[in-house]
Write a sequence for this structure.
């Protein structure tokens, strides 16, 4: 049996495995996979591999931070320490990829997940987790996410009032009220909790690649993916959601599904659309599937 410190390191390895499993999942419309680079000319699977390796020690640090914090309430010091780890992780990611953004969103989400998982381990949770333990993790993630979001929204408004340049995500918040990945975290990742994880649990005894491809389509059909909004606006997002809804409702066999996703990959690439938010959620779903021993 692993002691708690070993368990914290083990869940960090699961997070790295989740990132690798996501990028090698093939085919994914508009996204980097083993078959194509999708709508991305500046990265391929090897870029993602290098990024995942660079993030690993920081994932360990997040899990250990949560382990040390235990069941204490989330406070400003904890959020500050977690932000510090996340910033260092992002710098190492960009260094490993020569400045290419491979895992910025996934790094944010998995940092919160690992810290919350460490908090759960500190309270005696054994591996693998059951669904109730995963639910506790997401509740803790929501608490951390709310604290981060409150700080960030205050900072964005102050920067705008001062005339400072904003990131794409910050501009979307001010224009549309879209809080992106931070809003998802503060809400406890509802698409992950209510759509993806129940689906993965009901199909855990089948072909994991087929299951993940179908899960991806389900997410694309409903998710307000900020990556799609950035690249294609509301029209691009609506088009992508409509395509995913159509494929989902066809209920194709595996071979037919793969052919349809390859066709969509070409069309997404032509339109320069990439559902990166969906990819990040798939990574999180894989993390929990590994955490629960489903894969």
């Amino acid at each position: 049996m692993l002691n708690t410190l070993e368990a914290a390191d083990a869940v960090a390895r699961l997070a790295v495995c989740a990132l690798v499993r996501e990028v090698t999942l093939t085919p994914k419309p508009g996204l980097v996979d083993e078959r194509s680079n999708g709508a991305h000319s500046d990265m391929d699977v090897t870029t993602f591999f290098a990024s995942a390796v660079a993030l690993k020690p920081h994932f360990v640090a997040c899990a250990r931070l949560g382990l040390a914090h235990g069941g204490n309430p989330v406070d400003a010091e904890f959020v500050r320490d977690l932000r510090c780890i996340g910033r260092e992780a992002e710098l190492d990611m960009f260094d490993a990829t020569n400045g290419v953004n491979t895992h910025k969103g996934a790094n944010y989400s998995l940092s919160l997940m690992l810290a919350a998982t460490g908090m759960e381990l500190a309270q005696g949770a054994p591996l693998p987790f059951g669904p109730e333990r995963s639910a506790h993790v997401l509740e803790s993630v929501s608490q951390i996410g709310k604290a981060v979001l409150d700080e960030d929204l205050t900072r964005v408004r102050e920067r705008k009032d001062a005339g400072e340049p904003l990131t794409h995500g910050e501009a979307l918040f001010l224009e549309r009220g879209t809080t992106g990945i931070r809003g998802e975290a503060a809400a406890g990742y509802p698409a992950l909790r209510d759509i993806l994880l129940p689906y993965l649990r009901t199909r855990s005894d089948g072909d994991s690649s087929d299951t993940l491809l179908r899960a991806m389509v389900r997410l694309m059909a409903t998710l307000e993916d900020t990556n799609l909004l950035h690249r294609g606006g509301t029209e691009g997002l609506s088009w992508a959601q409509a395509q995913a809804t159509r494929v989902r409702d066809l209920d194709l066999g595996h071979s037919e599904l793969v052919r349809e996703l390859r066709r969509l990959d070409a069309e997404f690439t032509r339109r320069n659309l990439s559902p990166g938010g969906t990819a990040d959620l798939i990574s999180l779903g894989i993390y929990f599937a590994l955490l629960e021993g489903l894969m």
Notes: The chain has a mean pLDDT of 93. The CA atoms of residues 139 and 188 lie 6 Å apart. The first helix runs from residue 4 to 24.
